Amino acid sequence: xxxxxxxxxxxxxxxxxxSAHAAEPYEGAWVTSPKHCSDKADGPNSLTVIDLKxxxxxxxxPMVEQYEHHCVIDSKSTxxxxxxxxATCYEFWDxxxxxVNGTKETIKLSVVSKDQLKINGKQYRRCxxxxxxxxxx
Length: 137
Prior knowledge:
The chain is of the alpha+beta class. The protein is 16% helix and 45% strand.
């Protein structure tokens, strides 16, 4: 079992632009509970990082990252404040690196405000920049 899921999402949160500088309003670090912004436990929580330019081996890659759920965005379509992502997702980071055991998923993002986002109908809040930075290991 690969236990780097939270660490990867937390590290991605550090590299993200602030909401004022994000290319898309849904890019950033999102949580269902504010305590997850600075949660240092290596275990499941709601931290979800959406970044359209994750640097993987010098190549920008659009991804949605959660604990043990790593999704590469294959395509996106936007209508008003709703964006639908088609992605290939992997439970473990090692599976992503080997490109095995991926599943196709559709992720619906609905921007409520600059600090609120619905992901597949579930309400998330943007992590404040300082809280997201405190997740660094």
